[in-house]
Amino acid sequence: MTCLNLEKLYAYLEGDLAGRDKKAVEDHVASCSACREALEERRYLLQAAETLPAFEVPGDFARSVMDRIAPERAKAKTSVWLKAAAAGAATFAAALVATTLITGHTLSQLVLGLNRFLWSNLQGLASVLTKGAKYVILTFKTLLHIAGEVLQILKTLTSFIGPETQIVFIGATVVLVLGGGFLWSRRFSVERNHEEL
To answer: Is residue 28 a part of any domain in this protein?
Structure first.
């Protein structure tokens, strides 16, 4: 048996071991002086701890500690949040005043214009996201269809060609698909750049 670990020593001292486990520890301690000394040291420690007078925690101890800690934390969090909100509000107000002075529009005209601007951009963003989702779904369906056709072709070809030829064919198919995807993305970006010009 290897030497005892602390968990085993304490389990023995606290009476948690029984039967075979207890006998194994006792046999090992009888033959191993290092474990015997370690067991005796732990026994003295447990006895010393048992003779200490009971320490009673005052009933309001936890509350008094939390009362000392919590207000400081709450103050710090509130302070940081209020400073950030005040800085944001001041910046927004300064931008409105500066824009009013520069453009000559009234504050209500600026707020209405800002509202229209935000609403139109939100609608545009929704339109772009919808179109993007349609393109992703269409691309996914196309790729699934192509993959299905390729698998069907491979299934048919596997009955005619050997494994080496199959590997070459699969590699060529992957290269063609990746190359086609690259060329399609380049064409799409060229068309977009041409439209922007």
So the answer is: yes
Q: Global pTM?
A: 0.29
| Residue 11 in domain | yes
Residue 52 DSSP class: S
Does residue 46 sit within a domain?
A: yes
Residue environment code for 54-89, b if the CB has 16+ CB neighbours within 10 A, otherwise e: eeeeeeeeeeeeeeeeeeeeeeeeeeeeeeeeeeee
Q: How many domains does the chain have?
A: 1
User: Using 50, 70 and 90 to split pLDDT, how confident is the model at 190?
Assistant: low
Question: Which whole number is the average pLDDT over 87-113?
Answer: 80
Range of the domain at 37: 6-51
Cα 135 to chain centroid, rounded: 29
Q: Which amino acid is at 7?
A: E
Give the mean pLDDT of the chain.
78
